Amino acid sequence: MATTINQSLLAILVALDQSDEPLTEEQQEALYKMGQRLGTKPKKWSSHLDKLLTVFPEESDFIKSYHEASQALAQFPSEEITQILPDEKEIEQFFPDAPVVKRAYFEGQADQSSQEICNFVSSVVKSHHPAETSKKLNLAQRLAESLKAFGNS
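Given the sequence above, the corresponding structure tokens read:
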């Protein structure tokens, strides 16, 4: 099954959440640049992702967690992936003074064209401490709970 932009981008945040290794300056810079590139050229997400992954050692916690999260997210129908994201009230609770992390507003169902997940991930990876931000969002636990609920339905 082909990995979608939403699955790949959320897998990055889950990997940041799960990784115990601190990010190097080079890795933080690569995350920031990817966030900037997603904002200006979201259709080139695959090449942005490839550039990011090259700064992480192949055996790192981040890469392992990224691949595990990608596989887990591939089990979801694409229209249900946005349920993993925190809602606007949760984001305000986690980050009361940081307008950087916001969910994009859109009408209807989130999908590939709504750019909601792309915008959200871009905001998180451009934050001053993307790994800490991802840990606060607790996306790994949200994914596990969603998979469990999805498996029981």
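The CA atoms of residues 37 and 48 lie 7 Å apart. Try to locate this feature in the token string yourself.
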